Structure formats: C-alpha cells, structure tokens
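Private note to self, pasted from the team thread so I don't lose it. Backbone tokens:
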C-alpha cells in the first residue's frame, strides 16, 4: 500500500479533473431544476385551460372527466414540486472534498497506519480492486490496485520523456 503514491503532477491533474467534474455536475443540476420548473408551468397552463372549459360546460359527464383530468394534473404538479424540493446538498464543500481526496490519494498508507480498524478496512476496500489474497506458505499475494491507482500508474508510465538517442533501436 505504501507504493500507491502518484507523483505531485499527476495528483494535481486528478484534482483539476475532479473540480471540472464537480462543476459539470452543478450545471446538470441547474439544468434539471430549470426543466422541472418548465414542466410545472406547463402543467399549470393545462390546468387553467381545463378549468376554463369546465366553467363553460354544463354537461355533468364532461365536468366529471375534466375534474379527473385536473386532479391528475394536480398530482403531477405535486410530484414536480417534491422533486424540486429535494435539494441534494453534498456533505462538504468542494475544497473540503478535494483536500480529503488529495490526502488519501497522495499517500493512503499514512491514513491506514494512523486510522482505526474501520478506517483501515475502508482504505483497503478503496485502494485495492479485490480483497487481499493470502497464501499460508508464501504470505500475502500481489494485490491488484483499484482503478484510480491503476490509472495513475498507466499515466505515469506513458508520460515519460523520449530518450536523447530517440525511439529507434541503436545500431552500434
């Protein structure tokens, strides 16, 4: 676990990506809220139209049908109002979340070493893709890192400078 440490540059890139994803998620939430408000206004218009028709008619069957339709529209408005009131707030600010994630990704071993049993289990679950395999004769087997640490490793291994002699094999 102590080997799961990305470079500072890779960590900075990951934090920048997190901030961009956070901003996109906020924009999507704003758009969804605007769409719900638009649908609510549309239901209001439909309901007003049906109420006008109901006032103009004297047929009891038509009035009953219009009342049913108005009741269904009212239920739809209540559902939309409920969706609008479900304001999902995150449990922390972006700065707090980035700081926690940066501390974890920078060196999960530090958190594991000083954490409680529950924290240690959580770190193991998030740092490795599968539970640690143990062999009675050889001890712990090579663990498979989680997706994020594999991603950091692949980026680090692919982001190397070209050697001074180039990429072609040497012929001397």
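Design output:
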């Amino acid at each position: 676990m102590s080997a799961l440490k990305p470079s500072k540059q890779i960590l900075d890139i990951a934090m920048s990506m997190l901030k961009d994803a956070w901003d996109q998620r906020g924009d999507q939430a704003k758009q969804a809220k605007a769409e719900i408000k638009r649908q609510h206004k549309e239901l209001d218009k439909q309901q007003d139209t049906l109420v006008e028709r109901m006032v103009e008619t004297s047929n009891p069957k038509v009035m009953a049908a219009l009342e049913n339709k108005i009741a269904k529209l009212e239920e739809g408005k209540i559902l939309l109002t409920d969706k609008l009131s479900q304001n999902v707030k995150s449990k922390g600010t972006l700065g707090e979340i980035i700081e926690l994630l940066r501390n974890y990704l920078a060196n999960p071993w530090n958190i594991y070493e000083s954490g409680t049993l529950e924290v240690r289990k959580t770190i193991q679950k998030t740092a490795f893709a599968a539970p640690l395999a143990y062999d009675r004769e050889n001890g712990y087997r090579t663990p498979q890192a989680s997706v994020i640490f594999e991603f950091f490793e692949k980026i680090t291994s692919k982001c190397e400078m070209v050697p001074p002699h180039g990429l072609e094999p040497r012929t001397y």
